[in-house]
Amino acid sequence: MTSFPLSRRLVSEALGTGLLVTAVVGSGIMAHRLTTDIALALLANTLPTGAILVVLIIVLGPISGAHFNPVVSLVFTLRRELTAMSALGYIVAQTLGGIAGTLLAHAMFELPLLQASTTIRSGGAQWLAEVTATFGLVFAILAGLRFRADAVSWLVGLYITAAYWFTASTSFANPAVAIARSLTNTFAGIRPVDLPGFIVAEILGAVLALMLANWLLMEVRNPQTLSETEAIP
Amino acid sequence: MTSFPLSRRLVSEALGTGLLVTAVVGSGIMAHRLTTDIALALLANTLPTGAILVVLIIVLGPISGAHFNPVVSLVFTLRRELTAMSALGYIVAQTLGGIAGTLLAHAMFELPLLQASTTIRSGGAQWLAEVTATFGLVFAILAGLRFRADAVSWLVGLYITAAYWFTASTSFANPAVAIARSLTNTFAGIRPVDLPGFIVAEILGAVLALMLANWLLMEVRNPQTLSETEAIP
Amino acid sequence: MTSFPLSRRLVSEALGTGLLVTAVVGSGIMAHRLTTDIALALLANTLPTGAILVVLIIVLGPISGAHFNPVVSLVFTLRRELTAMSALGYIVAQTLGGIAGTLLAHAMFELPLLQASTTIRSGGAQWLAEVTATFGLVFAILAGLRFRADAVSWLVGLYITAAYWFTASTSFANPAVAIARSLTNTFAGIRPVDLPGFIVAEILGAVLALMLANWLLMEVRNPQTLSETEAIP
Amino acid sequence: MTSFPLSRRLVSEALGTGLLVTAVVGSGIMAHRLTTDIALALLANTLPTGAILVVLIIVLGPISGAHFNPVVSLVFTLRRELTAMSALGYIVAQTLGGIAGTLLAHAMFELPLLQASTTIRSGGAQWLAEVTATFGLVFAILAGLRFRADAVSWLVGLYITAAYWFTASTSFANPAVAIARSLTNTFAGIRPVDLPGFIVAEILGAVLALMLANWLLMEVRNPQTLSETEAIP
Description:
Chains A, B, C, D: One of its GO terms (molecular function) is channel activity. Chain A is built from 9 helices and no strands. Chain A is mainly α. The N and C termini of chain A lie far apart (45 Å).
């Protein structure tokens, strides 16, 4: 929890989620316009997303924690590090900021501001991918905070860079970003009707990560005794 | 503000802006010669630009602050961290260094040294892109200096890597670099007649970032009181 | 050696190796589906692998050491920093985790869960490549632990990013990952019958690296005397 | 200057230069086999080279300084930080190590071990590119050592990643690597007859960088007085 007043924390969450969505949607549009090779377009969508995440988390993290993601705020609420009221504010700010990010990308690329995506992303395999993606993201954040808090920005940026490719859904892993991406009928879009499946999967992945982290990262009570049992005689 | 004499600071600004422009223009020429895929060419333009920014800011930052950008010098002048006279010197050094960088790239690639770009980059969407690009750059610098001064080189390199793709203008975000790029009729060029629109947009983005930073990053007076109100009862 | 109980260390090794394999196999499938250019597919396989390695080593290293690789566990056993019993547990956990990682990738991409690879990877040149790849990996880890323990995650991620390209085998360098990759008939696969040659080569490379490191990294007894002899008169 | 005995320092230089050349030549072969797009091949040559440089400098730097480059050893000799005798040993070790690196790459990719390149790299523009490339490399090293010694590995890796693209010669910037690359008739080769021009240009670039660094990085005697003159009244 930071010491900044809530008003500025909410602006930080809206600004960060907004720029993140602008990066995701905007780089998708740019890439898709410049090449017919879909792998290259995805690469040109991946690298800016990973890069901007590192930047946004470093510069806004000290203000609001740089969640930019409702399931991350949910996890911190379950850990009692955020009040329910603040979490609600965070989630609203993230969602509104994300939508503004889509509008900004559309404006910069001279596209209709309001769109609805027609890209189908649904079915069990996609949902499994979102569970996996969000599980890994939230676990990386929680373990990173435990062991190397100064490196969390890099962990998130690198994790998303990887997960774009190894999850079949290209790793949305974020309900606010998913909602914002449902409003663009471009490379990074998702049909509005497919949102509920994604969001449920993302919440599930986050809760699984929290449960694993609670056990795996638990403080060790008698470290010396334990390490002695391991010593080579 | 550094303790190096102004003469060396000006050489540092000229050298840094020059090598930055050589990287932008040179990698654009190289990429465009080697492929017909424009997205791949832009990627091969993006990565060297981001990489050289990290290097130049680390090695020249301690000498001159590594602005390499008139709007960054403007912002530090408005913050009263640079005198108007020094700022003027910085901007002249950046502009001359940038132009020399274009000439060096042309010489290395056996192109006519003096050229004028014919690449049209104009209109409201492009200007909005430049406002956005420069806003994000300047905000990242100011927030980075506030929270993680040792990481500013990475912030700038990663931010530009992302902004190349998510802004429709490929993120010039720098009047000195824009002027230098108006003198090359290659991949990275911009028509001289389009310069004023870009420069005005860049100044606007920078000033907006400064205004937001002044409020968002302001010191918190009673941090303990604030964090108590957030505590879970 | 960490102070975490063995049960959690084994889960950490299984989880880390599993996600590593999911990243390798999953990004290979995604890349191969999206492009016909094999170099681009390999690049889209390389970057996620390197990125996830940095993440996994940072977040799981404090728990289990983040070996994720039987030959790394072997080397630490030979250095007497891991008991033979723990090493056995590690290797079993890595292998089972790796196989689970392949299954997860198949499930996410709607492929048959159980497959056997038909990709031939055999012969002296391939084995030399695996000796080289594993030698470099293990040497980087041992020297990194000696000089910059905080950077080992980056060393491994960057080393594998490079070795994917400069070794003719694309640098498996890991028997548990090789076994897991023998169970997928996709981009990243290897025929089960080719496993023994790879595994022997990987063990050989690891032992060579350990021998070199024992000599090259050995503590210097009288550093001052030695550096005096080097001083310019 | 390190405290390691000269024998180990020479092995470190040979090993590091060897693996660097294996990375350059091997990734060039791999890339050229997998794609017909030359820009993509160069990208797949660039990223492994940059990545392995970071690794090699971190793990071998504490032993030998991680020059891997005769002109770097020359510069440290001119700065009287290395004796002429040690420098001679370094340069021999770098050259022999580099040649061994080419042979290893050929062996891994099942190519004739001994080859002579037929790739023409000559003329004033190429030499200017090599002067520029080596100037930037050596200046980055010297300024990095002065201001952020812990980051030199990243500076070199990122600088070379950029210079591959912005110099018309793809930035050899290293006589030992150039000699080793003259012995491979693959993507990364250079005709033996073109070596002298490259080597002279590289020495010139290095000496220019040393001269600039001697002035630009010189200690500031009365920093307080200077910074007072800059203060806003």
